[in-house]
Amino acid sequence: MHSVGEISDHGPKALPTGISGLDHILNGGLPSQRLHLIEGTPGAGKTTLAINFLLQGQEVSESGLYITLSETSDELRAAAASHGLSLDGIDLFELVAEDGFNSENEQSLLHPSEFELGETVRGVISQVEKTNPTRVVVDSLSELRLLAQNPLRYRRQILALKHFFARRNCTVLMLDDKSAEPGDLQLHSIAHGVISLEQNANDFGAERRRLRVIKMRGLDYRGGYHDFTIQRGGLCVYPRLVASEHHRDFDAEPVTTGLEELDALLGGGLPPGTNTLLTGPAGVGKTTTAIRCLISALERGKHAAYYLFDERLATLMKRSENLGMDLQPYIDNGQLNLRQIDPAELSPGEFAGAIQTSVEQDNAEMVIIDSLNAYLHAMPSDNFLVLQMHELLSYLSQQGIVSIMILGLHGVTGDLRTDLDVSYLADNVMMLRFFEAKGTVKKSMAVIKTRTTDHERTIREFKIDASGIRIGEPLTDFEHILSGNPRFSSGDEPLLKDA
């Protein structure tokens, strides 16, 4: 095996597929002049991948041939048009022409299947010799499998095609709909590379698609499953995030939250390359606190990304404006990418890809996820979601991003709980709680964990009003606030008054 991004000096060059995420997984593209198998159930995206592959070749003046055994050329053109693409300049060959279905060409039961199979293979060879393409797609192998009728004959014909294409210096994609018996790996042993596409339907929400490179001889590809979507224009692949590959140098000097008292609680501010977890019951002010930190970064001219899962976008915008923290000007000038996420329609890979785009292309220096509850609970079928979140936060840390996560707790007062404890992922943990004093519901905040600084170990009252957030002096006359059963001890220190 070779190091990442390399192919043997004596091996084939990498041929871009036209799908940037897939090329990244393959460290440049498919090995040229080889036969590759693209397998997947109907609707998984095989034809779309093949069209992207041929059109990419057309862009670099490589001729392409699409041999279809199951679809008509009109259907292929319509499929391409649905993505805003044109197959003009690509040779389309229907192996069974329209006049092949008349009575003269029908095969009787007296004719052996070898005749039909032989004619089909000869038709493929004839068309390749006629057009002399650089890139070839054969769609699909299930037709050849049915004609062959037994595994030995089928394998021999595929091997014959493989050797023929090798002499023609073609790069070939053979599409297979996985209609063979489960566990039949004949094609895997013949093909130089195998890419498997999967489509899974959840109990609720859109179907999820993912791909895996099963084998690619002589190439150190990125293993494992990678999410992808089919969008207008073709496949969009989101390579599995590996945080250690994305390190960059950055200034670790803490940045201000915009509130002197909050900076004091955090031991000086929010250090770049760390993530902060804001946790507390509904309505206590977690989102408002995060917005205050966001506004401070935007006022310093920084770019930021905000991913909103829980609240409606219009509600968040109006509430922030009423609190003197209007976000609209920063959206208008391009500093802030504020995106409302429907988690039922989004895969973890797509979400990680969106954050990578914000960081690497839009230069975001602060990322806020509001909230983890919706993100984690809306995708219960993804068993390794917390592990993916760990990788995502590690990536943000490697990039020097100030990241803020919001986690809601069940209940309002007393013993508060969450279905998922992610506090171990956080560098800083801030707890916001309600407490009662003199017949009034009040709010408190405390930093209970930081990994980078010596933080203030006090509990402070805070108030949210038309002027934003006001934070008071440490509460020295109360006990057990964080336990949910506060008790006034002694003293006559004043609490925050209305402005």
Name of the top-level CATH class of the largest domain: Alpha Beta
Whole-number total of structural domains: 2
The count of β-strands is: 22
Q: Just name the CATH architecture of the largest domain.
A: 3-Layer(aba) Sandwich
Provide the structure class.
alpha/beta
The residue ranges in which pLDDT falls below 50 over 5 or more consecutive positions are 1-8, 97-113
Distance between the termini: 68 Å
Give the CATH topology of the largest domain: Rossmann fold
What Rg is obtained from the alpha carbons, in whole angstroms? 30 Å
Question: Share of helix among residues?
Answer: 25-40%
Q: Can you characterise this structure?
A:
Residues 13-251, 253-485 form the KaiC domain. This is non-specific serine/threonine protein kinase. GO terms for molecular function: ATP binding; hydrolase activity; protein serine/threonine kinase activity. It is an enzyme of class 2 (transferase). The protein is α/β, with parallel strands linked by helices and 499 residues long. It folds into two domains: 14-240, Rossmann fold; 245-488, 3-Layer(aba) Sandwich (Rossmann fold). It is built from 14 helices and 22 strands. The protein has helices at residues 20-25, 46-59, 73-81, 113-131, 141-148, 151-167, 186-190, 260-265, 286-299, 313-322, 328-332, 348-360, 372-377, 385-398; strands at residues 14-15, 30-31, 35-40, 64-68, 91-94, 135-139, 171-176, 193-200, 208-216, 225-231, 234-238, 275-281, 303-308, 336-340, 364-370, 402-409, 428-437, 440-450, 460-465, 468-474, 478-479, 487-488. Strands 5-4-6-7-3-8-9-10-11 form a nine-stranded mixed β-sheet, with helices on both faces. It has a nine-stranded mixed β-sheet with strand order 14-13-15-16-12-17-18-19-20, with helices on both faces. Strands 1-2 form a two-stranded antiparallel ribbon. A hairpin with an 8-residue loop joins strand 9 (208-216) and strand 10 (225-231).
